[in-house]
Write a structure and sequence with these properties.
This protein is of the alpha+beta class. About 30% of the residues lie in helices and about 30% in strands. It has four helices and six strands, in the order H-E-E-H-H-H-E-E-E-E. Strand 3 and strand 4 form a beta hairpin. The longest helix has 15 residues. The protein is globular and about 35 Å long. The N and C termini lie far apart (about 40 Å).
């Protein structure tokens, strides 16, 4: 029930303060990085958040090791027409970030278990809580 307060945000809505932070960080340049911890679907994920371009390069490098053909296909997708992105309605998303948080080498924390991951992205609309900085020890 909404009584005009910010206590509950509608399902699928991106936290405007997180959006402002990401836009500010990633508008400084393609090499910008932000240490962030987020809760997504009850799981804590902590690590370095980078631009979509930096994340895509890292992911393609990981794929290239096991399958050069798939990496080539991913590279061609990355060079697709920028007008398609605008048509998808990403104008309210942070510059250089789309609708995802792009983590490099994050750690998932679930039930006290730490799970290191390679380049990982999560939907910004699913972030239930977040804080600046990494959880110590990862």
């Amino acid at each position: 029930m909404d009584h005009g307060t910010d206590k509950e945000s509608p399902e699928g809505r991106i936290d405007p303060r997180l959006l402002l932070l990401l836009t500010s960080v990633f508008s400084t340049g393609p090499d910008a990085t932000l240490e962030l911890t987020a809760v997504v679907d009850g799981i804590v994920i902590s690590g370095s958040v980078v631009s979509e371009d930096a994340w895509t390069l890292r992911q393609n490098d990981q794929v290239r090791i096991g399958s050069p053909a798939i990496a080539t296909a991913l590279d061609s997708m990355a060079s697709a027409d920028p007008a398609e992105s605008a048509a998808e309605g990403t104008s309210s998303q942070p510059a250089g970030h789309g609708r995802y948080l792009h983590f490099l080498s994050p750690v998932l924390l679930s039930g006290g278990v730490r799970v290191p991951l390679p380049a990982t992205r999560v939907d910004l609309r699913k972030v239930a809580a977040w804080s600046i900085g990494r959880i110590q020890g990862d």
